[in-house]
Each structure stands twice: as structure tokens, then as C-alpha cells.
TonB system transport protein ExbB2 (Pseudomonas syringae pv. actinidiae), 271 residues
Amino acid sequence: MDPASYLNQRRIAIHPMPCSDFVHKESCAMNLLASPFESIEHAVIWLLVIFSVATWGLALLKGVQFSRLKSQDRKFHKQFWAASSLDSAAQLAQEQPGAAARVALAGYAAIQVPDGAQANDLSHSINHQDRLERALRQQIVRERRSLETGLAILASIGSTSPFIGLFGTVWGIMSALKGISAAGSASLETVAGPIGAALVATGVGIAVAVPAVLVYNYFLRRLKLTAADLDDFAHDFYSLAQKSAFRVLLHPVLKSGATGGQAGQKVKEAS
């Protein structure tokens, strides 16, 4: 190659002619149009990658949360039903972690009375039944809200990812058509490559959405089962409290560490 020609090509490559030049005016315009298209395609792909990482991260966190909660509730139920009375089981609700223990603690906080209270003292018996029912129901709602954390994100990812991928595909096809128009050729080789690359965004969107929907449905099912177990335990606790006229004497542990409002405050903090 002639050295002069080589140096001229290097000069053009390193310092391209300005867009005001008549020869390069059309190509410069196409480059300016193509660059935002490509950046948007890349942004869509990276957004879907972030969605995928968030999906699997939430799946891991929720799996650990539900597994730990199931183990804690199983241990608490075993010890609770082995207790001799509702009064003696109060210490378990104070010491044991888990959703069932917090529901029981809320129930104890609603019906507990001091040691010196008389059995017919109206000041300590009025509305205990309503208070217990309301306390159990509210604590179950708190536990459900805690378990629902992150599920809305999974539902949003599962429902929007295919459309985000489709948006990237449409944008990529628009960019490909502009490139084909600039090339002046509509052969299969010219069309297939850009169109196929644009369809990748739709495939990625579907690949992200399917696991998100499956994970969401799985943990939604586990949430309903856990809530049903808490409802059953709350009914059993209510029946036991009914046998004791909705009155439970303060346990020494509860008396020293979580009396009255303090016990309710601990329940709210735990939830």
C-alpha cells in the first residue's frame, strides 16, 4: 500500500471528517440516530438482568425466612401444648421466637391480670373477651404483612418483564430497519442479523418473568398456609382462654419484663 494512502486512511479513522462535509453528512446522521437506539437496547437488557438478580435474591431470602419460621413455630407448638396450663405456658411466649409465639404473647397481654386481683373484680374482667379477639386478629395481620414483604416486587417483575423485553425488541427492530435503509439492501443476510439480535430482548424478558411468577406463586401458597396455621392456633388459644374466663395471672417473667403495655410493645417490635 502506498504510504500516503495509508496515512490518509489513518487520519480519517482517527479524525473523521465533520458532519458538515457533504460526503459524510448522511453517514453521520445515521450514526447519531443509531447510538441512542443501541444504548436503549443495552439499558433494557441490563434492567432485565437486575430484575433477574432481584428475583433470585428474594427467592433465597424468602426461603430462609419461611424455613426458619416453620422451625420456630413447630418448636413452640410442641412446648406450648406440653404445658400444664395456659398460665404456665406464658413463659414460652416470652422466651420463644416465631410468629405463633408472638400471637400467643399478644393474647397474654390482652387478658393478663395482677396476682392480687379478685375473680369477680369487674375492672379486670370487662371486655377481656373482645380485647383478646382483637389482639389475636391484629397480631396475625402483622405477621402476614411481615411475610408479604418482597412478594409485591416479585409480582411486578413477573408481570412487567415480558413487556420491557418487548419494548427493547421493538426499539431494536426500529434501529435495524434504519440500518437496513442506510445500507440500501433488503436481502435475508442483511435483515436476519439485526432482527434476530433485537428479538433477544423479548427472550430475556420471558426468561426473567417465568421464574419470578413461579417464585411468587410458591411463596404466596406458603404464606396462606402459614396464615391458616396461625388462625388455627389463635382459635385454640381463644378456647383455652375462654375456659379460664379470659383471665390469666401474670407470670413472673411477664411481670418483671413485659407487663401490660410493655408486652404489647414487644409484640409490635417483633413484628
